[in-house]
Amino acid sequence: MAKNNTAILVVDMLNDFVTGALKCDRGLKIVPKTAQLLEGARKAGVPVIFCNDAHLKGIDHELKLWGDHAIAGTKGAEVIPELELCDKDYVVPKRRYSGFFHTDLDLLLHELGADTVVMTGLHTHMCVRHTSADAYCLGYNVVVASDATDAFTEEDYKSGIKYLKEVYGARVYTVDELLEQFAK
Ligand code: ZN
Fold first, then answer.
1. Confidence at residue 105, expressed as pLDDT on a 0 to 100 scale
2. For the chain, what are the domain ranges?
3. So what's the pLDDT on residue 134?
4. What's the gap in Å between 67 CA and the centre of ligand 1?
5. Interior CA angle at 29 toward 129 and 21, to 5°?
6. Quick one: pLDDT at residue 1?
7. Facing residues of 123 across strands?
């Protein structure tokens, strides 16, 4: 993996997903490793892109299934304080599971010269999977940071990783392994 054509995607590490409306304790568990990965990526010049739910209250289709969460402009839609955004980071607001669906993520990756995305965040089998699906369909190489993504249950996490590997050819690395590659 060449670091000069790679970008990190951080999916839905927002207050509502970790400690709020859709609280997920397993999401809290991946915060230290995710923070480490982002720090190493920034040092190595690898772009960090936050793909953040930013829903329109009373409008977005998805809210009927999940209830209100990450409503644009609220505290719940902000990135968790532990993963504080840096000036160099990018934020792509989204209104569906996938970070690509009706957003400018593809354009941004194209202009950054990235052909490989490192997937992190919540949830392995939902928004991470849907974002990976679009990344794959658009021709990007998919990499998963195994200890910087999780889901509500161990089963969802495991089946999520298995699916990413089998269907999108995702390469799976730990944060430590990725940091080693970035440091080269
Ligand atoms: Zn949502």
1. 98
2. 3-13+23-53+88-183
3. 98
4. 9
5. 70
6. 75
7. none
Neighbouring CB atoms inside 10 A of 87's CB total 5
Burial (Cβ within 10 Å: 0-12, 13-18, ≥19) of residue 183: exposed
- Enumerate residues 6+ apart whose C-beta is below 8 A from 168: 132, 133, 135, 136, 142
Ligand 1 centroid vs 44 CA: distance in angstroms? Answer: 31
Ligand 1 centroid from CA 19, angstroms: 15
Expressed in angstroms and rounded, the spacing between residue 37 Cα and the centre of ligand 1 is: 24
pLDDT at 184: 87
Separation CA 66–CA 140 (nearest Å):
29
Average pLDDT of each block of 10 consecutive residues along the chain (184 residues)? 92 98 96 98 97 97 96 98 95 98 98 98 98 98 98 98 98 98 92
How far apart CA 47 and CA 171 sit, in angstroms, is 19
| Ligand 1: centre distance to CA 98 (Å) | 9
pTM above 0.90, yes or no: yes
C-alpha torsion angle, residues 168, 173, 174, 178 (rounded to 10): -120
Distance CA 145, CA 184 (A): 18
Instruction: Please determine, looking at this structure, whether the domain spanning 3-13+23-53+88-183 carries the CATH number 3.40.50.850.
Output: yes
Quick one: pLDDT at residue 30?
A: 98
